Amino acid sequence: MEDYKYLFKVVLIGNAGVGKTCLVRRFTQGLFPPGQGATIGVDFMIKTVEVDGDKVKLQIWDTAGQERFRCITQSYYRSANALILVYDITCQPTFDCLPNWIKEIDTYASSKVLTYLVGNKSDRLLHREIPAEIGEHFAKQHSMRYLETSAKEAENVDRLFTEIAVELTKQA
Ligand code: GDP
Ligand code: MG
C-alpha cells in the first residue's frame, strides 16, 4: 500500500484539441502520443510527487471528450483542489472561449480553488496567434496563474504540476 501525506484533485478543462490529454500523458507517463487525440478511457490518472520530503498524491482528471459536447457537468468540478484551464497558443478560437470556461468555474467550482491558465503548444512558436503577454494579462485579470507549456517537448509540464502540488500543500 502506498502511503502519502496529501491527496489533491486536479481537473483539466478547455476546448477540445488544446492538448489536455497530452499534458496528462506527458506528466504521468512521460509520453507524447503522436497522431491520435487519444481519449485515455479512464476518469483520472494518479501521480505522486514529493514536496519538502512529503508525498503528495495528485489525482488528475481529464475530460473523456465531453468538452466536444459541452456537457461537462457540475460533478466534474466538484471537490477540485486545482483547475487547469488550457488553451492553444496557436489557435485564437481556443483563447476566445476562455470567458465561457471562466463562467463555468465561477458557477461550479469551489471559491477556494487554485486556478492555472495554461497556453499549450509553445513548441509551435512560428504559428503563435496569442502573444504570451495577452495570456498573462488575461490570467491576471481573473486571478489565475499563468504558464506556457509544450506537452510535445515536455516544456514546463512537470513544473506546472509541481507548482500546483507545492501551492496546495501550502494551503492545506
Ligand atoms: P485535448 O482534446 O485537449 O485532450 O487535446 P489532445 O491532448 O488530444 O491533443 C490534441 C492535438 O494536439 C493532438 O493532435 C496532439 O498531438 C496535439 N498536441 C497536444 N499537445 C501539443 C503540444 O504541446 N505541441 C504540439 N505541437 N501539439 C500538441
Ligand atoms: Mg482529451
TrEMBL record:
GO molecular function, one term: GTP binding
Signal sequence coordinates: none
Names of required cofactors: Mg(2+)
Recorded GO CC terms: autophagosome membrane; cytoplasmic vesicle; Golgi apparatus; lysosome
Record's keyword terms, sorted: Cytoplasm, Cytoplasmic vesicle, Golgi apparatus, GTP-binding, Hydrolase, Lipoprotein, Lysosome, Magnesium, Membrane, Metal-binding, Methylation, Nucleotide-binding, Prenylation
The protein's Enzyme Commission number: 3.6.5.2
Catalytic activity: GTP + H2O = GDP + phosphate + H(+)
Annotated compartments: Cytoplasmic vesicle, Autophagosome membrane; Golgi apparatus, cis-Golgi network; Golgi apparatus, trans-Golgi network membrane; Lysosome
Membrane topology recorded in Swiss-Prot or TrEMBL: Lipid-anchor
Cell division in keyword set: no
Similarity remark: Belongs to the small GTPase superfamily. Rab family.
General function of this protein: The small GTPases Rab are key regulators of intracellular membrane trafficking, from the formation of transport vesicles to their fusion with membranes. Rabs cycle between an inactive GDP-bound form and an active GTP-bound form that is able to recruit to membranes different sets of downstream effectors directly responsible for vesicle formation, movement, tethering and fusion. RAB30 is required for maintaining the structural integrity of the Golgi apparatus, possibly by mediating interactions with cytoplasmic scaffolding proteins.
Protein name per its UniProtKB record: Ras-related protein Rab-30
Organism from which the protein derives: Lingula anatina
